[in-house]
TrEMBL record, chain A:
Broad EC category: oxidoreductase
Domain Intradiol ring-cleavage dioxygenases positions: 84-112
NCBIfam families: protocat_beta
UniProt keyword terms in alphabetical order: Dioxygenase, Oxidoreductase
UniProt record, GO biological process: 3,4-dihydroxybenzoate catabolic process
Family recorded in the similarity comment: Belongs to the intradiol ring-cleavage dioxygenase family.
Claim: Repeat is one of the keywords in the record: no
Record protein name field: Protocatechuate 3,4-dioxygenase beta subunit
Leader peptide range in chain numbering: none
Automatic annotation (TrEMBL), chain B:
Name of the protein in question: Protocatechuate 3,4-dioxygenase alpha subunit
Lineage of the species this protein comes from: Bacteria, Pseudomonadati, Pseudomonadota, Alphaproteobacteria, Hyphomicrobiales
Broadest EC class assigned to this enzyme: oxidoreductase
Family: Belongs to the intradiol ring-cleavage dioxygenase family.
EC assignment: 1.13.11.3
Keyword Oxidoreductase: yes
Length: 246, 205
């Protein structure tokens, strides 16, 4: 870990113009699951600027290898082998070290391994679809997986999710807690998707689309996509009155 | 022209979707053998943890009064003395036997979530005021585009609640009871209403 003191400043205000509104009726489930009252704004107290820390001891060897972590001995998951890598940064451009990144996805055919999933595409007996990583001292993470397939869902009569990987990220404060989705460069379904279109800002959508990264590709093995994630930045307490005398 | 400020923008949130369990609680949906146990499952305390053991249970309701059966709830709280187990805690060292964080998926049949934890101590708001004992809740699910943050306070802390600077921030006082759990037997019940009558107060923190 970096030999720097932990930061204790409050986080920058969240720019809600870059995030989906709660109520987005074209994504039908949001209609009954969105608050009608305004959020109550609150500057970061101790309860928001702190957050849990997960040690590298949490991880098993194959936690960041979805091709192998559910496979039977001698077998592996079917599909396009890819490496997904990137950096978790905060809004100041500083790498977020020690961040827990969890990810989950459908298999190559767009089928999730979940009790409530009924899509007719086949399960892959060697693919679970879940993994996790903890960022290094510069905020980097990586994992190996199968490129997920697009997936039909009951919203409009013919809505399909673009290929996507779900991400959940813990930064250094609970106010940085974020769940989002990564999409793949060039997928024409991105611009048709009601869930993507809950994001009101076109550039904010583009920042969720991972480019093909031929420099990180492993020849004769797997292609690579680069996906950087930005969490909220935080103010430096150097500039603040030390209200608590610390 | 001026120099660009150069800040990056936070990545946009997206819904956790109906299959959030695959990534966050895989053993709960039968994906076994990858993680030894689901992160954040089980009691928050062990034999050595200091503080009063409590159980919190509740449901998340949509605007039609239906319980969410595909939601995921996380909590974050201080230890019995009001210290957070976090590097950003500057006042002292928290109970090493208390992480202070947990997650629970809603039961697939009933939607109920349950946490076995300890009652947190008071936490300072600034140099002169204290927040009443509280637990931070974070709710995600299909249909929720960005995680919803709220707080649970305790019904047996009337004086501290009355002096709490965050509750004081709520202009419409009639909404404050939505953040205060109910006592039912030995348990605290904290129901979260996403929309409509008695809608829970959510915070932009």
């Amino acid at each position: 870990m970096k030999n720097t003191p932990p930061e204790t400043g409050a986080f920058f205000a969240r720019d809600r113009d870059m995030h989906p509104p709660a109520y987005a009726p074209w994504y039908k489930t949001s209609v009954l699951r969105s608050p009608q009252r305004a959020l109550i704004s609150l500057e970061g107290t101790k309860s928001e600027i702190t957050g849990p820390v997960f040690g590298h001891g949490l991880l098993n060897e194959l936690d960041n290898d979805l091709i192998m972590n559910y496979a039977k001995p001698g077998e592996m998951a079917v599909g396009q082998r890819i490496l997904v890598h990137g950096q978790v940064l905060d809004e100041r451009g500083i790498g977020v070290h020690g961040a827990l990144v969890e990810f989950w996805q459908a298999n190559a055919g767009g089928r999730y391994r979940h009790k409530k999933e009924t899509y007719l595409a086949a399960l892959d007996p060697n693919f679970g679809g879940v993994g996790r990583a903890i960022t290094d001292e510069n905020g980097y993470y990586w994992f190996k997986t199968i490129k997920p397939g697009p997936y039909p869902w009951p919203n409009g009569v013919n809505d399909w999710r673009p290929a996507h990987i779900h991400f959940s990220i813990f930064g250094h404060g609970f106010a940085q807690r974020l769940i989002t989705q990564m999409y793949f460069e060039g997928d024409p379904l991105i611009w048709k998707c009601p869930i993507v279109k809950t994001i009101p800002d076109e550039d904010a959508i583009k920042r969720l689309v991972a480019p093909l990264d031929m420099n990180a590709t492993i020849p004769m093995d797997m292609r690579a996509y680069k996906f950087d994630i930005v969490l909220r930045g935080r103010r430096s307490t150097l500039f603040e009155n030390r209200k608590e005398g610390n | 022209m001026v120099q660009p400020l150069g800040y990056l923008k936070e990545s946009a949130s997206q819904t956790a979707g109906p299959y959030v369990h695959i990534g966050c609680t895989p053993n709960f949906v039968g994906i076994e053998g990858i993680f030894d146990q689901d992160l954040g499952s089980g009691p928050l305390y062990n034999d050595k943890t200091r503080g009063e053991r409590i159980t919190i249970r509740g449901h998340v309701y949509d605007g039609g009064g239906n319980t969410l059966k595909d939601g995921l709830v996380e909590i974050w709280q201080a230890d019995t003395d009001g210290f957070y187990n976090s590097p950003s805690e500057t006042r002292g060292k928290a109970d090493p036997n208390f992480l202070g964080w947990a997650r629970c998926p809603g039961d697939m049949a009933t939607g109920e979530f349950v946490f076995h934890t300890i009652k947190p101590g008071k936490v300072p708001f600034d140099g002169t005021r204290w927040m009443a004992p509280h637990i931070t809740f974070w709710v995600v699910a299909r249909g929720i585009n960005i995680g919803l943050q709220t707080r649970m306070y305790f019904p047996d802390e009337e004086d501290a609640n009355a002096a709490d600077p965050v509750l004081a921030r709520i202009e419409h006082k009639v909404r404050i009871p939505t953040l205060i759990a109910n006592r039912q037997g030995d348990d605290y019940v904290f129901d979260i209403r996403l929309q409509g009558e008695n809608e829970t107060v959510f915070f932009d923190i």
